[in-house]
Amino acid sequence: xxxxxxxxxxxxxxxxxxxxxxxxxxxxxxxxxxxxxxxxxxxxxxxxxxxxxxxxxxxxxxxxxxxxxxxxxxxxxxxxxxxxxxxxxxxxxxxxxxxxxxxxxxxxxxxxxxxxxxxxxxxxxxxxxxxxxxxxxxxxxxxxxxxxxxxxxxxxxxxxxxxxxxxxxxxxxxxxxxxxxxxxxxxxxxxxxxxxxxxxxxxxxxxxxxxxxxxxxxxxxxxxxxxxxxxxxxxxxxxxxxxxxxxxxxxxxxxxxxxxxxxxxxxxxxxxxxxxxxxxxxxxxxxxxxxxxxxxxxx
Length: 299
Fold this sequence. Notes:
By secondary structure, this protein is α/β, with parallel strands linked by helices. The chain has one domain: 4-Layer Sandwich (Nitrilase/N-carbamoyl-D-aminoacid amidohydrolase). It is built from seven helices and 17 strands. Strands 1, 2, 3, 4, 5, 6, 13, 14 and 17 form a nine-stranded mixed sheet that branches. It has a six-stranded mixed sheet with strand order 9-10-11-12-15-16, covered by helices on one side. Strand 9 and strand 10 (about 175-180) form a beta hairpin. Helix 1 (about 40-55) runs parallel beside helix 3 (about 90-105). The radius of gyration is 18 Å and the shape is globular.
């Protein structure tokens, strides 16, 4: 079993032998906050929340919401706040995520930020290891082109290009899969991540309040049960304004769900953080007792 190290649980005389001492869980924290369209302001807000989470929970892994660096505004503002990613010179959001991982020696899942490729934008998720190295990059595949029950229209494809490839990264031998928000409605993506070895799947979101009320928790728990993976879902909350100045409300309620579908950490609609231990022995037990991947006959 590949596990994470917990330095604070070791007596000082064992420090030289740290690589030989294993702990059966990594502690994960989800961040939730009210994002706006100004990247500089969002970075400051997230920095404070991560610092508070580190002081209170001492997590091994921190996950941020979807489009935390710039939520709302028109296309010109989104393009201005988006970043060309390495091998180009890193922008402020990328550098912040990388430096946060290094500073705290933790894994940082950067939710998603706007990626700029020429005049094209992508909704892109990034994963960094404790040394600050980028481990995985994922462009959102399923774009939110939807009219909600009250008639609010969303056309993500008018702003962003769609990704084509799944992505996983490994930290300490643990396989982490990437998805973003609306992807949660497409179980075939999550099956592909499970088949690629995922044990933990991130679902950073800016879920609408209308759909979140009825679907957010249900879908997250369903994907956890189907894939027998831990689900780590950070979220935006509160209000922002779209290109036309219309108020948009996101649902919040960030969650961490275990492979049996049980909620292990949850937030309401206020900014903050929540944490839970990602117990990989729990995952192994669920998969051993109910080997659904071996039993699949279709797809």
